[in-house]
Amino acid sequence: xxAALLAAAICAACDKATEPSxxxxxxxxxxxxxxxxKTLCDGKSHATVTRDIVIRGWIVANDLYGEFxxxxxxxxxxxxxxxxxxxxxxxxxxxxxxxxxVRCNGLELCEYGGKILLGTEPGExxxxxxPHEDLPRYLSVALPGEGEAPHTATLSFAEVDFAHVDxxxxxxxxxxxESGFWCDTDPETGRSITTEHTILDAQGNRFTVRTxxxxxYAKEPVPSGTGSLIGIIDYFAGKYTLHVCxxxxxxxxxxxxxxxxx
Length: 262
Fold this sequence. Notes:
By secondary structure, the protein is mainly beta. It contains four helices and 18 strands.
């Protein structure tokens, strides 16, 4: 029931995005933007947050449909950040469109491939994941206020820059360069593997769409024809990619429409 009410609230506010409201009572001194938080890791491979810093933003991606494995992505007016969380049902507790307050003291910022992530002490594959039992200590979720919704920037490929990393964007009038499935299959194990596809705009410009092997629609064909994709901009080692979020695939041939407003 809570998820249904949240979805209704998000859809009702799709064209009325505003700044997030302020549930809870963190001190004014502790409240900071996502952009400020990430500066604490400038020039470093990782940095521990050692003082009371609170950020707040909309949840724009999670593990719904298996798209972002053990990850929550939030954004505010200054940017976005991925939060690594060791739980496999994040969408149930931290649904897309909700407002998330993050108490960062004790968490770790980690630079991985040029992008800053938030979690615990980093390992070989970047930032460590916050244990499930510790999530309530750091994260609190609230429904958006009336008329509030996360912003989705409609961009051309050329407009994508570092400010858009970990934020939700929309590409219109695009098509996939080649047919195929969202994820390729490992011939030895039969399992899906993380796969990249190229999309083209009306001028023939290219952009990369990356789909995680955990995606529930991995074995479905990519849509044909021209349409729109809504997703999160990722960045690694100088390369931008789009990760579809909340099954934001608006094509005439798409197997399913998005479950929330684009």
